[in-house]
Amino acid sequence: MAEAAAPQPAAKAVSCPNCGGTVTLRAAGYSVTVACEYCASILDVSQPEVQLVTRYNERATRLAIPLGTRGTLDGTEWEVVGWMARDDSGYAWQEFLLFNPYHGYRWLIEQRGGWSLGEQLTRTPEGAWGGLKVDGERYTPFFADGTARVTDVVGEFYWRVKRGDSVRTDDWVRPGAMLSREADDHEVSWSRSRYLSTPAVAGAFGVPAHTKAWPPLPHQPSPALPFVKAGIVIALLAVAALILGAVVMGGGRTLWQGSVTIASDGRDQQAIVGPIELTRPWQRVRVVADVPALSNGWVDLGYTLVDRKNQASFTASKAAERYSGRDSDGDWTEGDRSATADFATLPAGTYDLVVDYKGNNWIDPSRPPSNFWDLNANEPAPDWRRSGAFAPQIDLRVVSRGGAGGGVFFLMLVLLLIPLGIGLLIHAHFESARRAESDFAAQGDDD
Amino acid sequence: MLTLPCPNCGAPVTFRSPALPNRVCGHCRSMLVRSDGGVGIVGIEAALPFDVSPIQLGTRGRFDRRAFEVIGRVRWSWDDGSWNEWLCLFEGGVHGWLGEAMGDFMMTFERPLADAGSAELDRIARGSPAIPGRKVELDGEELTIADAREVACIAAEGELPFTALPDWRIYSVDLKAASGRAASLQREGDEAWFYDGRYVKLAELAPTGLRAIEGWQMPRYG
What we know:
The structure holds 2 protein chains of 2 kinds. By secondary structure, chain A is mostly beta strands.
């Protein structure tokens, strides 16, 4: 029968047989050993009569989180009941034993200013591909054949603990968690610790918030990894979108090809060519004009694509110009006999291309002016429009083009890859510093 | 269910099941045994030492979808500490033990040794020492002997299947498997009892009627 529920007191006081100080038992019934928080003597509290195990007469270490401090991690309140400093050949850390009567024990572990929350496992991990597996999570080996020694102890524990106690240790890690095996001659125990953010521990237990572990803890997740992962996903999506765009908007294809003739008098001319069928929902269209006879002159070229169905029109223009001559540096040429004009996204439809054009001749101003004593005075200035046997032609080619042109595609790729690359560099730097401590570090970064 | 006055102090005491013939009088701590001839006193139970266990007599919960109520407890000690074994009475009259040590819990049920069919356990039951680290095969699963030592009863309360008085000493062997399975063998003279079960989290038992502990927020389950 449940006795009427006056709450059970949470703690019990015992007095230290060495210094007489009042020692609070916060996990009565579980605790076996207490290291007196005043004189550091080790007491046995497993029996009703408190026994002195080891006498010390020193001031017990002042703890970063005093015994009895409470803090909430992941919604569960914990009280600090014990503390141990441990060391493995110079690699030192401290462990605070946390207790909640309804949730048992946890370990709050600090090393180099980085924090973890450890929990004893009641199961043994299974082997998996050279590593271990617990709760479906895979761990890879990190430290092997260590010896963890207790160098200092304060507060209460559920086993017999004293300075100098040592266990053999092996550790496995995954980002955010570490799996530890501790063995002595009698027992093997497994625990798992999860990395905690320093601000979370600072908020819960009032430790300094700005410390940053470097090199990183073995199981500390790379801060750049979420960014890199998201970056890779975004880059893949963007590339897929670009490719999809290219598919929807079509690849390069000649839609129409033909020629128009340039009048020798340089008047405004117009030609209507077509039909030009645009079949994809959207496409970019390019008109390439080539004037093989062009020399010291230019051709104004204006294009209008007119949709036969609804008379929607789209315009573009680009002149072809070509000059040559001779000066103190020798022969020179400038310009191009062909000209390219682009239409951005055009909807599907049947189009006519209206070409407005005009051939122009250019008189070289450096050419000596003709005068009456010039033997060549009667010779007319050269004019490409009439120098050939046939009237010069404009060869026109209308092509549809892919979604983003090669240049744009490349630019987008670079814009995506630069931050991703920086993220990867930060990640690689972090990972190599993290892994450098491992007993399984690659030969190269072992120094 | 049988309610009678305590033959020592007259306070009413209840026996819920013929399978649980023992009970400690909640008023005078007499250890009572029920038999066909009535209720007799076989000793005086010690006071339970102070502890902060979250379990108490009357705590209810569910294990593998079966409801149980905590109706008894034995507190045991060994060289390096002490622990509680809480007796859980399940619907239908079956009982199990909720062991509570170092903040961890395990639920085990008594099982005939012959049924376990382990030569190693049979040897231990007949008096051989159990060697920690040695493997024992049970139902095709490998268990490891985690611990073997002499333990002593400190105190008991509520209803029990046996008489557990202070200083009752038995030999106790704990076994564990990688899966979280937990078993134990207890031996006294040439008698042995075997218990089989697994580790549990308090939360998975969805307990109600937990003990209120000053200054701590009692979790609500279910």
